[in-house]
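Good morning,

Both structures are done.
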Amino acid sequence: MNIREITHVALFAAIMGALGFLPPIFLSFTPVPITMQTLGVLLAGGILGARLGAMSQIVFLLLVAAGLPLLSGGRGGIGVFFGPSAGYLLAYPITAFCLGYIQSRLKKLRIGHILLINLTAGIFIIYLIGIPVQAFIMNIGLPEAIKMSLVFLPGDAIKATLASLLVYKLQSYPIFNRNLASY
């Protein structure tokens, strides 16, 4: 990795940490809070690409595991990887990688393509990993965990739309050129 790539990885790990300063919204029926950090995952994959986007999320999760309170609500430490949010957290680097990979295969990124990728692949992968792990840890059935997670869809759709707009606008900046973001 060159200095520029290391800087971008560190920058997006820091963005994830900064998004963690926004207070979570806890709901009475689920221990998984609504946070803005999903936005950071979508941005990392869309702007940095597959490899660097995933690396930024891995660095972020390693910092959290080391005990830094970077998750929304000041949470951190190895214990968060054994709680109901564990699957969602583990999905971060996989999601960033998949988003970056899919977007790198497009010749020209249009806002509609980015939004479709974020809404389908991005949100779907986070739910695909997060919901079953939540069901397992909470010792509830998968259908019940899916029902509890439906409340997150409107907010995640808004975050995916915002991330899509930012990725679309930032793709023209030389600092985030497509050569850097390619797989």
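Second structure follows.
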Amino acid sequence: MPLSGMGAARQGGRFNRPDQEALYLSLDDATALAEYKQDNPWLRPGTICTFFVNGLQVADLSAGFDCERWPSLWADFTVDWRAEWFDKASEPPTLYMADDVVAAGLDGILFPSQARPVGTNLVIYRSSAKPASQLRVCDPDGVLQGLAGH
């Protein structure tokens, strides 16, 4: 179910709380691979595919942090959210950013990659509810549908 965002919902992520659907995408394949691998020296099995995204309203952090609505908070997106969440049992500021984005009715956040500094990522909220005109996966041969049953 590549559009579900439920993988990130299992434990949460940089911009989503546990049980909050969030689909994390990268704008290029090298960044996608770096994000998938993270700091693990071994590449675990997985599926990489192309998504088509159109007409979503997103908070754009990709070019800097001069945002009038959330000026001081946005600069904290680079915090080590895993250390905050898992080591310190404290909610990282990025979760509050996500709350603000969702409350404002935006579809997601465009942000610089921490795994590949020249890359850009996009997190999309409520991804499974988006119409195909806004979000769809490239699967012309139905391969992903075949994997869903396994």
